[in-house]
Amino acid sequence: MTGNINEYELLYMIRQKDEYAFKLLADYYLPIFYKTYGEIKSYWSFSDYDECYQAYLIGLNNAINCYRSDKYTKFSNFV
Questions:
Q1: Rounded to an integer, what distance in angstroms lies between the CA atom of residue 75 and that of residue 63?
Q2: In degrees rounded to 5, what are phi and psi of residue 2?
Q3: Rg of the Cα trace of the chain?
Q4: Contact predicate 53/38, CB 8 Å
Q5: CA distance 64 to 66
Q6: What is the DSSP letter of 71?
Q7: CA distances from 16 to 10, 20, 64, 73 (A)
Q8: How many H helices and E strands in the chain?
Q9: Would you say residue 3 has pLDDT above 70?
């Protein structure tokens, strides 16, 4: 994923309040955001990039807080 750190290690670090780990995870999933933003901006002319990016970060934060590894699903599928 990012060097020698996998997403599960990042999740642990984020839950320990490591802001840099959150940035690394957000950057890792950024291509998904760009793809989604590219699709919705053509449908909704009111969709501002900054607002959509903020919603992406909030959604990622919610996914981090709600994800449980004991439920037998990968985080990448959960996001």
A1: 8
A2: -120, 95
A3: 14
A4: no
A5: 6
A6: G
A7: 10, 11, 12, 22
A8: 5, 0
A9: no
Q: pTM to 2 decimals?
A: 0.78
| Beta bridge mates, 72 | none
Q: How far is CA 18 from the centre of its chain?
A: 15
Q: Are 10 and 79 in contact (CB under 8 A)?
A: no
Q: How far apart are CA 31 and CA 48, in angstroms?
A: 17
Nearest Cα neighbor of 33 from 79, 73, 71, 70 is: 79
Residue 68 has pLDDT above 90, yes or no: no
Mean pLDDT of the region 24-50: 83
